[in-house]
Amino acid sequence: MRCPKIVVCGATGNQGGAVAAALLKSGSWSVTALTRDPGSAAAKALADLGAEVLKADLLNMRSLREAFRGAQGVFCVTQPWSSDKGRFDPGMEIRQAKNIIWACRETAVPHVICSSILNITESISGVPYVDSKLIIEDLFTRNLSGCIIVRPALYMENIGTPLMSISDNKIKGRFAGDSFIPYVALSDIGASVAEIFSSPDEFADTKIILAGDLVSGNELAKWASEVSEGRVFRYEPANELLLRLFRPRFYHMRRFFTKQGLLLHRDTSPPGAYHMLPADPLTMAEYLSTKFGNSKRSPFVHIR
Length: 304
Hints:
By secondary structure, the chain is an alpha/beta fold. Helix content is 41%, strand content 20%. It has eleven helices and 17 strands. The protein has helices spanning 14-26, 41-49, 61-68, 90-106, 128-143, 186-198, 200-203, 217-227, 240-246, 248-266, 284-292, and strands at 5-8, 30-35, 52-55, 73-77, 81-82, 87-88, 111-115, 148-152, 154-155, 166-167, 170-173, 181-184, 207-210, 213-215, 234-237, 275-277, 301-302. Strands 3-2-1-4-7-8-13-16 form an eight-stranded parallel beta sheet, sandwiched between helices. Strands 9-12-14-17 form a four-stranded mixed beta sheet. It has a three-stranded mixed beta sheet with strand order 10-11-15.
C-alpha cells in the first residue's frame, strides 16, 4: 500500500532538504520533492533516499497544480532572493505564496504547513524580506483552513558561512556579544515538520516557534573554544553605528532578532500564542561539538 503523499516545496534548499530527509527517514510518507533543477546534486541525493523528484517553479501555477494532485500534505517555504535581479524581491516571494495557496485550494490538499520566520509579537522589523513573511502568513491563514505556520529561528548552520564567518579564530557576527539570539538546527526543523504531519489536526490553525537554544555571541565563542582542539575563539560583533549608517537592513535585523531572543529568554511572549517544538532540540553546544570535534552538554539557556 502506497504511503500518503507529502509534497515538499524548495526541497533542494536548506529547510526543504531537511524536511524531505526527515519525512523519508520516518518511512511514513511518500515524498515528492519539488525543485527547479532535478539534475542538481541535492536533487539526486533526495532521489537516492527514495523521493520522487519533480521539476516545478513556485512562480508557475500549472507546475504546482500537477505536483499537488493527490497530496495529503504540502510543506512550503518561499524565498525572496531573485537571481535574475540580483537582489531581494519580497513582491516575488508573495507571488510564490499566492501560487502555492491557490494550487492547494484547486487540488484540495487537506494539510498545509507554511514556513515563516520567528516573530513572537508579529511586529514590523524594518527588513522587507522579514516583514513580507507576515503578509504571507496572513495569506495562508485566511485562505487555507487549518493551515499551520512554523516560525524557525536562525540556523545553527549559518555559523561558518558568510552570515557568521570564522577566520583567525574570530567568529564574526552581526549581534552584540551579550545578546541572547535564538537558533535552531535544520535537522530539528525537519523532525518537527515530520512530527506535525503525523498529527496535523492537533496543530491546525497554530503558529509554532522552532527554536533550540538561546546563545550569546560571547558564550558561543567560549563554548567553541572548549570543544575544539587547542583553538581559542573570540566573538567579534559588528559595530552597531556602522551598521545603522551603512547597512541599515542588517541594523534592523540585529534589533529585531535581539528582541525575539529577549522575549524568549524572559518568557514574556504572549501566553498560549504559540507551541514550541521539538521537545528535545539539538543544543548549540552539541552542534558545535559536531563542528569542532568533541562532545559536551550545553551550559546555555535551553528552551524546553
